[in-house]
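Sorry to interrupt, but I need a hand with the structure work. I would like you to pick a protein and set down its sequence and fold. Please put the record directly below this note.
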Amino acid sequence: MSDKPSREELNALPVEAPDLEDETQHFYVCADCGQAVDMRRLGDVLHHEDPGHERLPEQ
């Protein structure tokens, strides 16, 4: 059993992100898998930092 919070628990944490004119500015493209990652979702960001990760299911 891991003491680490799950990706879903991390994604549920409150985020303070600026209001941007263009919603796409909250995203980057993962260099390993090519998936767009919402930087406001910490669990997803950390998932994409793991070498050899799988793409996440589309939401």
Remarks:
- The two ends are 27 Å apart (CA to CA).
- The CA atoms of residues 11 and 41 lie 5 Å apart.
- Helices lie at 7-11, 42-49.
- The longest helix spans residues 42-49.
